[in-house]
């Protein structure tokens, strides 16, 4: 009797569980069908592109390596190029606006194809052993040896984040002039000593900075595609690399939580092209007819996830080259429909010089306009004071206030 009842009850319970399962299954399939329909287009594109980005297989690296050697970069690689082409129509509307027709873009691309810049100095094996967490790409003119030395001693010192994989690379073109060969041989000696220089054979000038940035993107995509993050910056910057690595990027997160298609820095939103011919930032209406630039990040220092290097480089193959490097990267991002994200707070990235205090400098990432000697001085001050950098700040404020009050009292008393 008891056995029977229990048996029948378990039977009923079993049936109920079964029904519940069927119901849940039906619900899930219905839901995913609906969701699938709604986001179908978006999903299929982002999904394939993500898959491609994560696949840093040897074959892909080989293709890119061949590209670095051959004068004509291989164009089609799986579906990445078709994705770019798909988005080009939309990207064009967003960024280049009316006058830059597709045929013009194709022309620009063919120009790029026939003028590849060969590596004169390269560090092909920099990432062979281990994928670095952060690669610093530092734009610098060949003759600025002192600045390179200051950076090696300060924010570019690889022992700042030895365990996590931190790579420093200086980006160089070549210099024209009488002393060229002498300079070149000293650069080669420097490269032998530090192994932190890459150089291509374009003339190193302000107007060629975009080429320099693209060299960096190409290098990451070709020789270091597994880098988690990349920062592109300049030689006259103060970079708090420790804060950048530990606080903004955080190497202790598991790889799955690392950011993808991430781009941040000092955001320049809604800027119009400068039409004053005497300005350093002049942009001719012929080159860029549109009234506004897409959102871009100041070239003084921007940070992005490693997956973007290849995407930006490939997007650049079909975007007419503009000399304003940061605007240009913004155009590539617009074409890829990737929006730069604001940093967690507005004080982190500065494209001007922030007045020095160890408290302020222990909580920022970039500050602009430093001579090599200043860099060394402030860096060492920050290193010795960073652990107690902000302790005395409120006290100092109090002191100033008390002094002011005393002065006021004194003035009243005297009056
Ligand atoms: C990566 O690419 C290789 C060859 O292109 C392929 O065999 C492999 O399945 C791909 N892996 C993933 C995860 O897509
Ligand atoms: C980098 O930092 C380490 C440790 O602080 C120091 O020993 C080394 O000399 C520094 N490297 C340079 C080039 O200054
Ligand atoms: C940029 O580099 C190329 C290649 O060396 C050179 O032909 C061109 O004149 C340079 N442009 C400027 C503005 O320096
Ligand atoms: C594009 O710009 C050129 C001058 O650079 C001009 O002659 C032409 O009419 C413009 N085309 C359109 C569609 O605005
Ligand atoms: C090489 C490769 O994977 N090509 C595929 C790209 O995507 C289209 C559909 O969009 C497929 O048909 C191709 O096979």
UniProtKB/TrEMBL annotation:
Give the gene symbol.
Answer: B3GALT2
| Similarity remark | Belongs to the glycosyltransferase 31 family.
Its annotated compartments are: Golgi apparatus membrane
Pathway per its UniProt entry is: Protein modification; protein glycosylation
Q: Which residues cross the membrane?
A: 12-34
Name the Gene Ontology molecular function terms of this record.
N-acetyl-beta-D-glucosaminide beta-(1,3)-galactosyltransferase activity
Question: Domain named Beta-1,3-galactosyltransferase 2 N-terminal: which ranges?
Answer: 59-135
Q: Which domain of life does the protein's organism represent? A: Eukaryota
Q: How does it sit in the membrane?
A: Single-pass type II membrane protein
UniProt keywords, alphabetically? Glycoprotein, Glycosyltransferase, Golgi apparatus, Lipid metabolism, Membrane, Signal-anchor, Transferase, Transmembrane, Transmembrane helix
- What is the name attached to this protein's record? Hexosyltransferase
Q: Name one GO biological process term.
A: protein O-linked glycosylation
InterPro entries found in the cross-reference section: B3GT2_N (IPR045821), Glyco_trans_31 (IPR002659)
> Which top-level enzyme class is recorded in the Swiss-Prot or TrEMBL entry?
transferase
Keyword DNA-binding assigned: no
User: Can you list the GO cellular component terms from the UniProt entry?
Assistant: Golgi membrane
Protein's UniProt keywords contain Coiled coil: no
Q: What is its EC number?
A: 2.4.1.-
Q: Which Gene3D superfamilies match?
A: 3.90.550.50
């Amino acid at each position: 009797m008891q056995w029977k009842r229990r048996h029948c009850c378990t039977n009923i319970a079993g049936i109920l569980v079964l029904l519940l399962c069927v119901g849940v299954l039906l619900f899930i399939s219905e839901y995913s069908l609906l969701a699938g329909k709604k986001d179908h287009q978006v999903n299929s594109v982002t999904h394939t592109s993500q898959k491609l980005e994560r696949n840093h297989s040897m074959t892909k690296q080989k293709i890119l390596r061949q590209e670095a050697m051959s004068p004509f970069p291989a164009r089609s690689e799986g579906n990445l190029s078709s994705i770019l082409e798909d988005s080009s129509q939309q990207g064009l509307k967003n960024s280049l606006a009316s006058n830059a027709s597709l045929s013009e873009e194709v022309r620009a691309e063919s120009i790029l194809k026939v003028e590849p810049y060969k590596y004169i100095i390269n560090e092909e094996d920099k990432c062979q052993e281990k994928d670095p967490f952060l690669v610093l790409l530092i734009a610098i003119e060949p003759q600025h040896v002192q600045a390179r030395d200051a950076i090696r001693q300060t924010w570019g010192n690889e022992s700042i984040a030895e365990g996590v994989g931190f790579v420093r690379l200086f980006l160089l073109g070549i210099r024209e002039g009488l002393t060229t060969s002498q300079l070149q041989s000293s650069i080669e000696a420097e490269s032998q000593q530090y192994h932190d220089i890459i150089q291509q054979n374009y003339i190193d000038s302000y107007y060629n900075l975009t080429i320099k940035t693209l060299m960096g993107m190409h290098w990451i995509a070709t020789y270091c595609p597994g880098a988690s993050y990349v920062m592109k910056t300049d030689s006259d910057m103060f970079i708090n690399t420790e804060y950048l690595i530990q606080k903004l990027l955080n190497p202790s997160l598991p790889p799955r939580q690392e950011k993808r298609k991430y781009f941040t820095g000092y955001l320049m939103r809604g800027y119009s092209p400068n039409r004053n011919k005497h300005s350093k930032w002049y942009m001719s209406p012929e080159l860029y007819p549109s009234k506004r630039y897409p959102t871009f990040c100041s070239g003084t220092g921007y940070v992005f996830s490693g997956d973007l290097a290849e995407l930006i480089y490939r997007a650049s193959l079909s975007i007419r080259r503009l000399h304003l490097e940061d605007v240009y990267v913004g155009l590539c991002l617009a074409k890829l429909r990737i929006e730069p994200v604001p940093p967690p707070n507005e004080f982190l990235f500065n494209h001007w010089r922030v007045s020095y205090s160890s408290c302020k400098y222990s909580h920022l990432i970039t500050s602009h306009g430093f001579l090599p000697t200043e860099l060394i001085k402030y860096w060492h001050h920050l290193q010795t004071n960073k652990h107690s950098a902000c302790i005395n700040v409120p006290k100092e404020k109090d002191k100033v206030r008390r002094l002011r009050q005393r002065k006021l009292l004194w003035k009243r008393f005297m009056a």
